[in-house]
Every structure is written in structure tokens, then in C-alpha cells.
Amino acid sequence: MAVVREFTLPDLGEGLTEAQVVRWLVKVGDVVAVDQPVVEVETAKAMVEVPCPYGGVVTARFGEEGEELPVGAPLLTVAVGETAPTAPTGGTGGADTASAAKPAGPTDGGEATGSRANGEEGSGNVLVGYGTQAPAARRRRVRPQARETARPAERAPAPTAVAVISPLVRRLARERGVDLTQVRGTGPDGLILRADVEEAALTALTAQAPRTAPVGQTARHTARPETARPARRGSGGRRVADGLRVPLRGVRGVVAEKLSRSRREIPDATCWVDADATELLAARRAMNASGGAKVSLLALLARICTAALAKYPELNATVDTEAQEIVRLPDVHLGFAAQTDRGLVVPVVRDANARNAVELSVEMARLTEAARAGKISPAELAGGTFTLNNYGVFGVDGSTPIINHPEAAMLGVGRIAPKPWVHEGELAVRHVVQLSFTFDHRVCDGGTAGGFLRYVADCVEQPAVLLRTV
């Protein structure tokens, strides 16, 4: 007998409370597998394909494309029963599909598939709140033989069941090739968090390029050409008598909220210095001429930042306003600004202080590509402790950026341009860059901020200074 299950919009993590339906990936009557993406939604931070924890036939969809849904709102209903998406495609498969599409029916096939319905087609990856674990009460079978043969299938997933809080964590595990049954969760009651998956992936040596998507996922993406993707709503709006009104939501809404809060709460100050980057450019050319992975200029600046933060740890901090305490953080999670067609986003390189220039370059390239493709996860856009902002790509020299709340500082890098410069007592044309440093005056005084910026400038002018920290 088919059981209709309702799948609601899950908590996508990072405090997100709503999402906008961008594109449905299934329609009513389609057969879906466990963990198959069924809808693409746009949160305030990223585009996310939401996987369904149930396998069966889609009986209803809720929400039109472009509609905003709160967390917990129904997304779709699935008739879970004899229609296993993994079932043979012969004549019995058609009968299975028909029987599962029915809301009820005391057929032999419906009774025989109770264990598969309860076991969620053997997923074992529990989505908390919607999970694929078997319910406490089992449906009783009419035929004893069917019961005996079905029990091993019922019990098989149990030893490998794992607790996962979000579909994003499960998707991250699939993309990084991490077996969730081998991951020990550090969250409450053994809950597996994003950090646990990333640590497992790092242990498995994922310093290389990101894994390709699973075969089924690749085929699914291939079947959906980019031309079918609806236009972004961020550039839309409604015309009224006084002009064009554009909704302040999505990425733009989150940016507006964070920057406004930063201005309200953080007493920031900015200092500048010009630096001769000629030697840094020469050092990069020498690195890339030696073969191997290319090192980007942004990665070298990131490496300089982590060295400077090791020297001035007061700046890798946040302020707990409720406790009235400055919290100095042990690890550097380096955010860097990246411009995308959805607006400005800040991907975060985890444990940047433990990475060398090559590793930073590879990870920053991966995150940038994911951000511009709209496939970066909210988890990869959160948790930064310091931000590097390269606004030189816009052809400008300087800026007074707003600190990325709740961080305490941000380094800005302007364009590198040939300018007259006194070098070794003589006037010469050198490649000069303007560095700006904006900091929270609550965490340090001007002497600390000035020392940080001067150290960064020294490393830019004389990259050999970094050798002291290698």
C-alpha cells in the first residue's frame, strides 16, 4: 500500500528562514529516487538544489517558480510504496508505478513493499526532521513469506544510518566523495555537521580539484540546458509612477542587512599605505615558471594576510556584544570578495592559516567558480574571520570598505599600476599598489592596525620577508 509523504522546505542552515523557488526539477507523476534533487531554490546566499529524502511518485507540488516559501512550508508530496526508482523497467515496473500512484489499495504489491517504503530505498542518510529512517511501527504483512524475505532489507540500512542536519551537508558529502557512514559527528547527539564532512574530505586528500558530480547527477544536469534557466529576478522590479521598485531581498537583501548592522555596531577606522609591488609580481612569475599549479596574485596576498594575522592575532577576532568580550579566534577562515551575476559574495577559505600559496590558489579558484556558477553552498559563504577585498579588479586605487560583520578587520587591495617611484635612491617606474586596512577600533588601537598594514606592505615589497614564517 502506498503511503503519501509530505516533504517540506528544510532548514538550509546558516540562519536562513526562507527561499525562493527558481526551477522545479520534477513534475507531478515523475518517479524520484531518494536524495534526488527535486527543486532549485535561491536563498539569501546561494542557489541550492534541494534533494528529497523520499523515493516514489510525485503526487503534488507546492509553490510556483518565483514564489518565496518559508522554511517548513510544503514543497511536494511523494507516494512512497512499490514504485522504487531502482525497480526493473519491465512490465512489472509499470504496474509498480501505477500502484504507488494510488493513494491506497490492498494489493499484494503494495503490501510487499512496506519494508522498502519504511527503509526509504536504502538511503540511510537521515535528514533530521524529514529523515529516511524507518518509523517505529512496521506495517504488518498478510503473507508470512513476504515478511521473512523483507526483514533483511528492513534491517540492512540500520547499521549505516547517519544523522545529517541539512541536505546541504549531504550534498557536500556526495560532491567531496565522503562516505557519511564513516564520519563521526561532532554536533549534538552525534549530528554530522559541515565541518565534519570537510575534515573528512581533507583527510582523504582533497587538496586537488573538486570531484566531478556523480554520473546520475551529471546526466540530469546535461538534460537541463542553461537556456531553460529563468532570468534572474534581482534585476527585475515593478514600474510605478515614481520609478522602478526592485525588491530588497535575496543576496541584495542580505548584503543590505549585514552592512547596515556593521555600520550601526562597529566603530571602524581605515588607514592606507602605498607599496611597491614590483618584487611581488616578479616572485609570482618565478613561482609559475617552475611548473606545477599556478599561483594567483590573490593567493599570494591571502598568504601575506595569514602571516600578518599570526603576527597580530588581535585582528582575527570578533566582539561578543552581549557578553561585552573580545573573542580572539584560533583559526583564520579567510573570506574574499567575488563578483557574480547575483551580486557580490564572500566565499570563505577554511583554515587558511594552515594552507600554503598553492593550496590557497586552488581553493580560491574552486570557490570562485562555484560562486559564479551559482552552485556555492551557504556554508561556504559563512563563518569568515577576516576578509580580503581585491577591488583593484574594478580599476580603482582605494576604498573605505565596510567591515563584514561580525569580523573585526578587512584588507583592501587596489589596482597595481606603473607609477614613478623612488627606488634605491633613484626615480624609476615601478608597479605600485594602494593598500587600505579597515578595522574595528574596539579590538585594537591604531598602533596594532598600523603595524599589521606595515607588515603587509613590507611583504608586498619584499616577499622574502615571508620566508621567516615558512
Automatic annotation (TrEMBL):
Pfam families cross-referenced by the UniProt entry: 2-oxoacid_dh, Biotin_lipoyl, E3_binding
Domain Lipoyl-binding as annotated: residue spans: 4-79
GO MF, any single term: acyltransferase activity
InterPro entries reported in the protein's UniProt record: 2-oxoacid_DH_actylTfrase, 2-oxoacid_DH_E2_comp, Biotin_lipoyl, CAT-like_dom_sf, E3-bd_dom_sf, PSBD, Single_hybrid_motif
PANTHER family: DIHYDROLIPOAMIDE ACETYLTRANSFERASE COMPONENT OF PYRUVATE DEHYDROGENASE COMPLEX, LIPOAMIDE ACYLTRANSFERASE COMPONENT OF BRANCHED-CHAIN ALPHA-KETO ACID DEHYDROGENASE COMPLEX, MITOCHONDRIAL
Family membership: Belongs to the 2-oxoacid dehydrogenase family.
Protein name: Dihydrolipoamide acetyltransferase component of pyruvate dehydrogenase complex
Lineage: Bacteria, Bacillati, Actinomycetota, Actinomycetes, Kitasatosporales
